[in-house]
TrEMBL record, chain A:
Pfam families: ACP. GO terms for cellular component: cytoplasm. It comes from Mesorhizobium hawassense. The lineage of its organism: Bacteria, Pseudomonadati, Pseudomonadota, Alphaproteobacteria, Hyphomicrobiales. This is Malonate decarboxylase acyl carrier protein. Covalently binds the prosthetic group of malonate decarboxylase.
TrEMBL record, chain B:
Pfam families: Mal_decarbox_Al. This is Malonate decarboxylase subunit alpha. The gene is mdcA. One of its GO terms (molecular function) is transferase activity. Residues 365-402 are annotated as: Disordered.
Length: 104, 548
């Protein structure tokens, strides 16, 4: 297991007021994403635990694109990866943000 | 004095030689090998009916058993190289030269044999191209074809998988060649006549149906959320704005996802009746929910699909059916329909380069083309107008005189940025080029040329290549939807942003697509069983797809 941490920003503050959201599942080729509030409003912290070693630069690219494109400020995001492809990771992150915006 | 009927006399001699081993038109299966040795000559051009789906398998096995010292140097001209026997012929020295279209299941072996010099390749064709050559410079001397049944006169019933048969028989029979058919049974009265007896010279009763493969069944259970997202992009960002009513779909999971989203996502957008009403398409099981919910008006088919027979029979307004009620397919006509009468082709591919050329060649496989290059090309002989065609033409040439401006067919490549085994879909250099070098081919096997492609759709967005004004823009439009492949990561972000402002690239958020909709619950069927239920039990999935 490889553990990676990305402290990203500046980014737009996340919308909505749901305290936390969970999308996806830990399965082969999939991933689980937990989003929680509590970080600085223009920062986003992403922790990744992945079984696939050697993809740190790819994770850096996906996560930095994510905060550039989404309102992810104030979020701490924890990813449990099951060896997902980057397109699946990007989709799950986008889904997580959208879920945080929805009323509970 | 020139003999003006040498071909006719040659056929007559073959008929007499074969007739000595037959009872009238009918050959006993036990005499088939001797019969073939009697009617064939070394160097003959032979069409051994290998279609996309149905196979003249009994005749293929018999042809492999002829004595190569008597029958050799055959030139095989057939659309599908599908059965092992199709290549065994070359291994044992019966055949030497090959012109074909598609070789899916034999793609690795055919490449090895070409490389080893066992096969002298004429060319890899598209279907329509090979059929055209049957009438010009590749007319078969002998055709070995497959049908469901024959009557005592030799009329043939092909069943729903008519496919290539009428085209092969037309060229061979009227070109003074000999037509030999294998049938599953001999009956007194045929359900309908697909091939008239006077075009059929000999018939062998195989006593069983020909081999046919279910090639177009896509299990909804295997559709991914990324494919659903991509399908939403295609519907909302392409089908809707262009108002595409007449189209052809490829056979991959991406287009299956689109078919399954029409009754849900498409319905929500109020698009029923406005899109996807007329099709050139095989009877895809995944289209059942759209047909049942009233999206589809008419479908013409290249071939059939195993298990769809009763469903098609019960929907005669939608499908082309005979007086017996069963489907009449025709590959040549449907290919022509897809080329000239459809406004959009959308299909998946395995590799796309920075010019937009796409290819299904990976590693050392020669899978051939099938029909995609016909469907996936602009028909420059087209002269009738339609809204999508005019709009695409306007985008490609905004300054041109509208009355003199060609319309353009929408040719769309759809896929995820990474394919099976995490292989990137976007590449700097197509593997097809390496293959062409290795096999010393004149042309690299390109499925769809970049100048025919109008759009590329991935989970990242839609690239509209018509709106690009130079090579650099085009390259960046492609990089812009190439995701996290190396090609995608080498993008110039500022350039991509500018292209996005001009709507050359449209992302899911630009089209107001909610990523939470990219969920399997959006599919109108989640499994093969759901498709069966949606058909009211009329669709009978082959056993390999029954997992309940």
């Amino acid at each position: 297991m490889e553990n990676l941490r990305y402290e990203l920003g500046p980014t737009e503050p996340a919308r909505g007021n749901r305290p936390a959201a969970l999308v996806g599942v830990v399965a082969s080729g999939n991933l689980e994403v937990l989003l929680e509030r509590g970080e600085a409003r223009d920062r986003c912290i992403i922790d990744v635990a992945t079984p696939a070693h050697g993809f740190a630069d790819l994770w850096a690219a996906v996560t930095s694109d994510f905060v550039a494109r989404s309102a992810a400020g104030g979020l701490r995001i924890t990813i449990n990866d099951g060896g997902a492809r980057p397109d699946t990771v990007a989709l799950r992150l986008a889904q997580g943000i959208r879920l945080m915006e929805r009323p509970e | 004095m020139r003999d003006w009927n040498a071909k006719g006399r040659d056929r007559q001699a073959r008929r007499e030689a074969g007739g000595r081993l037959a009872a009238g038109k009918f050959i006993e299966p036990s005499k088939l090998v001797a019969f073939l040795e009697a009617v064939l000559k070394p160097g003959d051009r032979v069409c051994l009916e290998g279609d996309n789906q149905k196979q003249a398998d009994l005749l293929a096995k018999a042809l492999c058993k002829v004595d190569p010292s008597k029958i050799h140097d055959l030139h095989m001209v057939q659309s599908g190289v599908v059965l092992p026997e199709h290549l065994d012929l070359f291994e044992v020295g019966i055949a030497c030269r090959l012109d074909f279209s598609y070789s899916g299941p034999q793609s690795a072996r055919i490449a090895r044999m070409m490389f080893g010099g066992q096969i002298e390749l004429g060319a890899v064709h598209t279907y329509l191209e090979l059929f055209a050559r049957y009438f010009i410079d590749l007319t078969p001397q002998v055709a070995l074809i497959a049908a469901v049944s024959a009557d005592r006169a030799g009329n043939l019933y092909t069943g729903p998988n008519t496919e290539d048969t009428p085209t092969i028989v037309e060229a061979t029979s009227f070109g003074k060649g000999l037509v030999i058919a294998q049938v599953g049974e001999i009956v007194d009265q045929l359900p309908r006549v697909d091939i008239p007896a006077d075009q059929v010279h000999f018939v062998v009763d195989a006593g069983r149906p020909f081999f046919v493969e279910p090639l177009f069944t896509r299990d909804p259970a295997a559709i991914t959320e990324t494919q659903i997202l991509t399908a939403m992009l295609a519907i909302k960002g392409l089908y809707a704005p262009y108002g595409v009513r007449r189209l052809n779909h490829g056979i991959g999971f991406n287009t299956a996802a689109i078919e399954l989203l029409l009754p849900t996502f498409g319905e929500r957008l109020g698009l029923r009746g406005k899109l996807c009403t007329h099709w050139a398409l095989n009877p895809h099981p995944t289209l059942i929910p759209a047909i049942e919910s009233g999206w589809v008006e008419q479908i013409h088919c290249f071939g059939s699909e195993v298990g769809m027979e009763d469903y098609v029979r019960a929907r005669p307004d939608i499908f082309f059916t005979g007086p017996d009620g069963s489907l009449r397919s025709n590959r040549a006509f449907c290919q022509t329909a897809g080329l000239y009468a459809c406004d959009m082709f959308i299909g998946s591919t395995l590799q796309i380069d920075l010019s937009g050329h796409s290819s299904t060649v990976t590693g050392s496989r020669v899978a051939g083309f099938g029909g995609a290059p016909n469907m996936g090309s602009d028909a420059r002989g087209r002269r009738h107008s339609s809204d999508p065609w005019l709009r695409a033409g306007r985008e490609a040439d905004p300054e041109g005189n509208p009355a003199l401006r060609r319309g353009r067919k929408l040719v769309v490549q759809i896929g995820e940025t990474f394919g099976d085994g995490n292989a990137p879909t976007f590449v700097e250099r197509l593997s097809a080029l390496d293959l062409a070098d290795k096999l010393q081919l004149d042309l690299a096997p390109v499925m769809v040329y970049g100048d025919d492609v109008t759009h590329i759709v991935t989970e990242e967005g839609i690239a509209n290549l018509h709106l690009c004004r130079d090579k650099d823009e085009r390259e960046h439009a492609i990089r812009g939807v190439a995701g996290y492949t190396e090609v995608g990561r080498a993008r110039d972000r500022k350039m991509v942003e500018r292209l996005r402002e001009r709507k050359v690239i449209q992302c899911p958020e630009d089209l107001d697509i909610d990523p939470l909709d990219a969920d399997r619950s959006l599919l109108s069927a989640h499994s093969i069983k759901d498709l069966m239920l949606a058909s009211g039990g009329l669709y009978r999935p082959p056993s390999r797809f029954r997992n309940w």
